[in-house]
Amino acid sequence: MTRRSLGAILAAAALGAAPPAAAQTAIKLGLLTSMTGPAASTGEDQRRAAALAVDEINAAGGVQVKEANAKLKLQLVIGDDQTSREGAVSAVTRLLVEDKVQVVFGGLGSAFGMAALPQIREHAVPYIPTPSTPLFTRTPEMGPDPTKSMVFHYQATGLTQGAAIADFLVKEIPPPMAARRALRVAWMYQDSPFGAELHRGFAERVKDATLAIEIVAAERFRVGETDYRSLLTKIKGLNPDVLVPQGFRGETVAAVQQAVVDVGFDLKKTHIGPVCACADDPLYYKDLGKIGQGTTILSLYSTYAIPKGGGFAKWAAFRKAYQDKYGTLPGLLGVSAYDVVHVAARAIERAGSLDRKKIIEALGTLEIDQMVLAMQGGKIRFDPKYREAAFVLFVQQMAWDDKVKELRPTIIWPAELAEAKYRQP
Amino acid sequence: MDLATLVRVLTWGLVTGSVYMLLATGITLIFGVMKVVNFAHGELMMIGAFITFILAHSAGLNPYLAIFVSMIAVGLVGVVIERFGFRLLRDGEKINEVFFSIALILILQNALARVFVPRFREHVQIKTPYATEVVDLGLIQLRYDFVVLLVLAWAIITGLSVVLHRTRLGRDVRATSQNRVGAMLMGIRAERVDMLTFGIGAALAALAGSLYGIVNPFSPYTGTLPSIKAFAVIILGGLGSVRGAVVGGLLYGVIESAATFFLGGSWRDATAFVLLILVLLTRPQGLFREGT
To answer: Chain A partners of B221 at a C-beta cutoff of 8 Å?
Structure first.
């Protein structure tokens, strides 16, 4: 090795830059998610699904990188955010400085991904987050944020989900609940960017489209709350037609159970749902139990149902591969991580380089066939203004299945994907 | 607000307050006798909840019987923590005890998570045979589980009060709490009292955790916030005062419930702590100043 080349390597190491492609035998993808702490099980779902995608790509030979003139294998590196902001900062620092990953992706808590964002910006590393907050690529006023140009958001944002909930309710619920007046809707949502943006998306759609919906309550609860009885007692006193509880899976299960069993919401008079797409996970159907009959859930990926149409063809094969390997079914965030590994691999292939700047450019112009999650137009692309992917959303209604002794979903909205119509309990 | 709604809000407050009461009583007993603040009390609460959950769901034991097994088991864990932990630190700096109990939080929390999260994932709840049965109390209908929770919590606290005031063990505990050296001079084996008190406090935490887990979902990390509130309760009620822990716990629960109802869920935790600050400013010794 010449003195000059040794000097160049030392200089690159000192600057924390990624080593040149020729020196690398693998492409490092950094999964920033919660492997410990209260959200560890969802993090494990992401790790499993991402590992499945990595194994598939490596089994097919790896990713062709033009600059390296070789097919390189993917290597999954885990950054555990410990379900905390501080943990996210520490984990992303390690991914960037020690592991020198080419791409950072994944996550389930918006707050943790957002905490990692300053490091992402400083290192200008491609970042494909999977939590829902639109703040990953937007300003607090929801405009485009050019300072986050390395971020490509692969999840239905809270704004999109909130708007879809409004569209569903105004279309499907008024005749059974409020035929001749505005639908009285009560929201209770997690006091976090995630919850606030879902509510904002809903309220803005109601206002902008002048929907016949009256928001009678917008109550917030602490992240991780387990006792909703006093809040629900207050909401019940307002006689809403619809109760929309928005939280993570455990929070949602507790809120629905307490509403029905303890506070006495009558599902014939008050519809409960749609709850957040992030709750769509095998445990949601198991934990909610019989009392969840008739409630609804908004989804991008259903644990058990498959919508009509060709856009969902890959679901059955993906479920089988995941179940064969891990003995359980994936949830939405696992599926998202699986897709993103494929997205990152294709972007690197298109970039033909492990240079972060070139990968960011490739992500910006990427247009590939959808993976597991169904996309608007059947293609994965990040819109140039907000760098957000656009997903197909649908609503499912729960019914008790006596054979498996668990709830099972039926897709009821939109009409082109629906298996059945909404049924009032 | 109609009367039925008022009764509901009060009931939810009393239910939560009863859990705080049990936790705070355990903490204040331990503090009163040993002058030790065990920050890992919330983790003992969660160990208790998980033992009850396992006994009920895997061994098929009635959850209400399982609670008593859990109390004994966690009581023994408490005895071990006292004997091989706090006792060894007794003659050192107070800060060592603080760091020891903070280390215990991390060790117990992560041990629980390592054992339970892969199997049960995030949250579990103890299901009783009466989970959907309700009792009609006139103004409101209440699940049997809430009635049993209130009765059991109060029965145990009343029993503890009898033990503390009517038995030799209780006299030893109170004497050690009031004057450790004096008690030892009178022949009371203070270290044995320490061990027993820690065991009783831990058993009360197991009871609190199990009752909490019957009416709410829980995870290995759930104990932290209730235990912080229990510390606030004993400051509110007066350090070392069992009566203060009981009244403070119930008051705290009711205020939380009322704050949630009138001000919203975001105010739930804040309001009770605002009350605590007000009490500290106006009556720094707490509402009840007394020995155990």
So the answer is: 37-38, 224
The ipTM is 0.85
Residue B146 has pLDDT above 70, yes or no: yes
CB contact under 8 A, A222 and B13: no
pLDDT band of residue B37 (cuts 50, 70, 90) is confident
Write the DSSP string, A206-272: HHHTT-SEEEEEEEEE-TT----HHHHHHHHTT--SEEEEES-HHHHHHHHHIIIIIS---TTTSEE
Does B141 reside within a domain?
Answer: no
- Distance set, CA A420 to CA A161, A291, A310, A394, A403 (Å): 21, 21, 18, 12, 20
Q: What is the CATH number of the domain that holds A245?
A: 3.40.50.2300
Q: What DSSP line would sit under B151-205, residue for residue?
A: HHHHHHHHHHHHHHHHSHHHHHHHHHHH-HHHHHHTT--HHHHHHHHHHHHHHHH
Domain count, chain A: 2
CB B265 to CB A37 under 8 A? no
> What is the mean pLDDT of the segment spanning B94-113?
88
Domain that holds residue A77: 3-156+314-380
Pick the residue from chain B with its C-alpha nearest to A252.
Answer: B217
Mean pLDDT, range A183-192, rounded to an integer: 94
pLDDT for B269: 83
pLDDT tens readout for residues A189-203: 998 888 999 999 999
Give the helix ranges, DSSP H, for A310-413: 315-326, 332-351, 356-365
With beta carbons less than 8 A apart as the criterion, state whether A265 and A284 touch. Answer: no
Cβ-Cβ contacts under 8 Å, A283 against chain B:
121-122
Task: Say if B129 falls within a structural domain.
Answer: no
The answer to the question of residue B291 being in a domain is no
pLDDT at A123 over 90: yes
The CA angle A327-A329-A422, to the nearest 5 degrees, is 150
Cβ separation of B258 and A230 shorter than 8 Å? yes
Predicted local distance difference test score (pLDDT) of residue B177: 84
pLDDT of residue A17: 46
Quick check: A401 and A165 in contact, CB under 8 A? no
In chain A the first and final C-alpha atoms are separated, in Å, by: 76
Record the tokens describing residue A73, joined without a space. 């294998």
Number of residues in chain A = 425
How far apart, in whole angstroms, are the C-alpha atoms of residue A50 and residue A340?
Answer: 8
Identify residue A367 by its one-letter amino acid code: E
Q: Which residues share a beta bridge with A191?
A: none
Task: Calculate mean pLDDT across residues A54-61.
Answer: 96
Let me know: does A328 contact A48? Beta carbons within 8 Å. no
- What total number of domains does chain B contain? 1
Residues of chain A in contact with residue B118, where contact means CB-CB under 8 angstroms, are: 44
Q: Which of B5, B122, B143 sits opposite A262 (nearest CB)?
A: B143
- Angle in degrees, 0-180, between the axes of helices B41-57 and B3-34, rounded to the nearest 10: 120
Nearest to A303 by CA among A322, A276, A330: A330
Please give the Cα distance from A252 to A247 (Å, whole number).
5
Cis peptide before A274 (omega within 30 of 0): yes
pTM: 0.84
* pLDDT on residue B121: 65
